[in-house]
Amino acid sequence: MNGNEGIPSPDELISLLEQLIALQEALQVVIREKLEAMRRSDMDGMISAAHREGELAARVSVLDECRKRVAAELCRTKGLPKSARVEHVTLNILVERLGNPHRARLLELGNTLRVQMLKVAELNRVVELVSHEMLAHFKNLFSAFTQSEDGPRTYSRGGAVEAGSGANVLDAVG
Q: By CB neighbour count within 10 A (0-12 exposed, 13-18 middle, 19+ buried), where does 71 fall?
């Protein structure tokens, strides 16, 4: 806060944006580590990375709430109309009211944060695709071990042809 108690300064918003950018960059590192652990089928590595990712996401959430609070106070002190909901006030609108000393830096940080968040989203999309493929692979693998391919084919109650009731691989090896 600045000299006026309870009124945040634009420098506070700048600091929060810088911290959010740093956390987004840290999330990228952790998600890449999780992808590498997935590539190696390293369960401990995946669990560790997911735990660290959760901790970082929780910190992002706390900082984002602080950012919203500071932005709302800055909007209030800079005379935005009372009808304007703070959730709908963009950084561009706020920057117009703040003036030149902070305008360029806030716009730069806002753009950098947006880019970093898009990178995190893309990495999460890759994790989702890899997870989907891994699940499909394990499903096929498990079904190969639990269905007998050598047994005679029979008809199901619905009329479909299916494997008979031969010995399952998992049953045969204990």
A: buried
Q: How far apart are CA 27 and CA 58, in angstroms?
A: 11
pTM, to two decimals: 0.74
Tens of pLDDT, residues 25-53: 999 999 999 999 999 999 999 999 999 99
**Residue 83 counted as domain residue:** yes
Helix or strand holding residue 10 (H, E):
helix 10-39
Angle at 84 between CA 58 and CA 13, to 5 degrees: 40
DSSP string, 100-130: HHHHHHHHHHHHHHHHHHHHHHHHHHHHHHH
> What would the pLDDT profile of 135-161 be if each residue is shown by its tens digit?
888 888 777 666 555 656 677 778 787
Domain assignment of residue 40, given as a range? 10-141
Domain tally, the chain: 1
- Which of the 8 DSSP states describes residue 162? E
